[in-house]
UniProtKB/TrEMBL annotation, chain A:
This is Mitochondrial import inner membrane translocase subunit. Belongs to the small Tim family. It comes from the Eukaryota. It is found in: Mitochondrion inner membrane. GO terms for cellular component: mitochondrial inner membrane. Heterohexamer. Mitochondrial intermembrane chaperone that participates in the import and insertion of some multi-pass transmembrane proteins into the mitochondrial inner membrane. Also required for the transfer of beta-barrel precursors from the TOM complex to the sorting and assembly machinery (SAM complex) of the outer membrane. Acts as a chaperone-like protein that protects the hydrophobic precursors from aggregation and guide them through the mitochondrial intermembrane space. Its main location: mitochondrion. Residues 22-82 form the Tim10-like domain. It holds the Pfam family zf-Tim10_DDP. It comes from Mastacembelus armatus (zig-zag eel). Keywords: Chaperone, Disulfide bond, Membrane, Mitochondrion, Mitochondrion inner membrane, Protein transport, Translocation, Transport. GO terms for biological process: protein transport. It is a peripheral membrane protein.
TrEMBL record, chain B:
The lineage of its organism: Eukaryota, Metazoa, Chordata, Craniata, Vertebrata. This is Mitochondrial import inner membrane translocase subunit. One of its GO terms (molecular function) is metal ion binding. It is a peripheral membrane protein. It comes from Mastacembelus armatus. Heterohexamer; composed of 3 copies of TIMM8 (TIMM8A or TIMM8B) and 3 copies of TIMM13, named soluble 70 kDa complex. Associates with the TIM22 complex, whose core is composed of TIMM22.
Amino acid sequence: MDSYDNISASEKAEAADLQRLIATEQQKAQFQAQVHSFTDICWDKCVDSPGSKLDYRTETCLVNCVERFIDTTLTITNRFTQMVQKSGH
Amino acid sequence: MDGFGSDFSAGGSGGKMDTGTIMEQVKVQIAVANAQELLQRMTDKCFRKCISKPGSSLDNSEQKCIAMCMDRYMDSWNIVSRTYNSRLQRERARM
């Protein structure tokens, strides 16, 4: 077996390539996980009884729900950061 | 990163796997995990919506409700996905 320090340049390039590809897939998986979580929350807020089609009102509610949830996350993160910074000094 | 590499080499015949084979496996595993997550959450939501009083079997109206609920849940998932994706793009453009 090769020892770790005489890996060829092409093997190093291949490893770097693989790492980059996996990071991309990881990002996609993270996106999907976030979508599952949003759908879970916004389904409860927006869908009463599932009909034969999502009506316009429900669609708008879902869109607003996602946008406002993200706004809430940002607002809380900012405010919390400020609180921590203030108490730190 | 240690266990990660050894996991993959243990699966092969002692030889090295090429990047394409590894990525194929990674993609399949992520897709399976995603489908399981969807299935689990959808079952949870549609059971709550459609089966208020569990009887001795799923009756016709409950089965219809489940089918409809599944379709609407997947519609919702897609709307949420589109919305989140465009928000991410907007946030990136702002930076």
